[in-house]
Amino acid sequence: MIKTFLTTAALLAATQFAQAASVVDTGAPNGSAVGAIAFDSVDWTAAKVSFAQAADIGAIQGHILGGATGETFDISLLANDGAQGPGTLLYTTTATFGSDGWNGASGLAGWTVAAGSYWVEFEIQGADTLGSGSITGALLDLGAPNPVALTASTSNSGFSYGDDALSIGLRVDTVSSVPEPAIALQMLAGAMLLLTSAGLVRRRR
Questions:
Q1: Which residues cross the membrane (predicted)?
Q2: What's the pTM value of the predicted model, to 2 decimals?
Q3: Is residue 203 part of a domain?
């Protein structure tokens, strides 16, 4: 039994646990449709984000209004190799709208990035449905208290777009695998206690 506890403790010491870290959190915008920017099949918006070191992106959220539960939109990550904005497409996923506020995708797998700058883009592709059941259509509200420094947006399906500084709401979380020392130490302490107890029993005999 002692050997089993020692083996378990050793395995736990080597086990990696996922830990999320926020890379971008602009805070929530004002929640108002007044002054918000259109988010539909011809209007996309991207925000420039930077990573200080290599990372795996685990979740991305935007602050979106005007959708209905279950409607879909796309979130993409693009390289910073464009002439003035988003460049090469690296990853994309379909997200589902829940209610006005933060909406996006979590549990992203394989979204690995090196240190550097990238663009997170919110767009509606041909098969997406976000805003189709709304009078106003989907909107990205403005007024985030800690906005990203640079965004890019278009109103003509991307045939032309401009760099600007729209205060949209954005959250980007990374996931890192880190050891969980507390659990391993507890198991090791328990194993050592068992070893000590077993030694005392043998000496008494």
A1: 183-201
A2: 0.77
A3: no
